[in-house]
């Protein structure tokens, strides 16, 4: 992508009103964004309160893992100079299809990630390529604020997002985007532009 990786995790929130399930419609107004983009991500579900935990102990606080499409309005992301609005629009957090418990995932850094858009592979990578691993992300977050059971941490997306393609590819009306994480499953969502 020819973008320098960050030296520390970039944190932002996604509102609960952005969460939808597999099969639900990603819906947005063209007057609000014309650059809705996909991002397959492994998501970590916290199971035990975590406050100032070490990387060594971080996975002890994980209940399980799920799949998220961190849908992002790139035009808002860059014009706002921060990411909350761009990533928290209603329906911009497809999640599922289930939560796989931590004991069923031997190594969260050894999972394949894939996004397809209308059947074409757009992202194809593994969690081994993450800039910051799951242990680091949990520890980093817990140094600043307490993580509670049910909190969900999105772990970042691999290359292949629409913004950095030549030419850029953004979600449009009638698209279907599918995100998959090995060992967990896939979520598939139609797109509706209103």
Task: Write out key terms for the chains shown.
single chain; 194 residues; mainly beta; Fumarylacetoacetate hydrolase, domain 2; 5-stranded mixed β-sheet
Number of strands: 12
SSE string, helices as H and strands as E? EEEEEEHHEEEHEEE
- DSSP helical segment count: 3
Q: What's the average pLDDT?
A: 97
CATH architecture: Alpha-Beta Complex
Number of domains: 1
- Shape designation: globular
Report helical residue fraction.
10-25%
CATH class: Alpha Beta
Main β-sheet description = 5 strands, mixed
Distance between the termini: 30 Å
Question: By CATH's scheme, which homologous superfamily applies?
Answer: Fumarylacetoacetase-like, C-terminal domain
- Beta fraction: 25-35%
Q: What class would the helix/strand composition place it in? A: mainly beta
Any idea what the radius of gyration is?
Answer: 16 Å
Quick structural gist:
With 194 residues, the chain is mainly beta. The protein has a single domain, classed as Alpha-Beta Complex (Fumarylacetoacetate hydrolase, domain 2).
Plain-language structure description:
With 194 residues, this protein is mainly beta. The protein has a single domain (16-193), classed as Fumarylacetoacetate hydrolase, domain 2. It has helices at 74-80, 84-88, 134-144, and strands at 19-20, 26-28, 36-37, 40-46, 62-69, 72-73, 93-101, 112-117, 120-126, 152-154, 176-181, 185-193. A hairpin with a 3-residue loop joins strand 11 (176-181) and strand 12 (185-193). The chain is globular.
């Amino acid at each position: 992508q020819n973008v320098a990786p960050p030296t520390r995790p970039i944190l932002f929130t996604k509102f609960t009103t952005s969460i939808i399930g597999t099969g639900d419609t990603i819906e947005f107004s063209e007057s609000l964004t014309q650059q809705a983009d996909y991002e397959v991500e492994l998501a970590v579900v916290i199971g035990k309160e975590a406050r100032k935990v070490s990387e060594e102990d971080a996975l002890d606080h994980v209940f399980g893992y799920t799949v998220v499409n961190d849908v992002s309005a790139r035009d808002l992301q860059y014009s706002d100079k921060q990411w909350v609005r761009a990533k928290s629009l209603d329906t911009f957090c497809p999640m599922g299809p289930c939560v796989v418990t931590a004991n069923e995932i031997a190594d969260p850094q050894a999972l394949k990630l894939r996004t397809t858009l209308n059947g074409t592979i757009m992202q194809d990578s593994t969690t081994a390529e993450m800039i910051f691993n799951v242990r680091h992300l949990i520890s980093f977050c817990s140094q600043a604020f307490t993580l509670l059971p049910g909190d969900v941490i999105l772990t970042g997306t691999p290359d292949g997002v629409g913004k950095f393609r030549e030419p850029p590819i953004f979600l449009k009306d009638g698209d279907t985007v599918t995100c998959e994480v090995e060992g967990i499953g896939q979520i598939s969502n139609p797109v509706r532009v209103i």
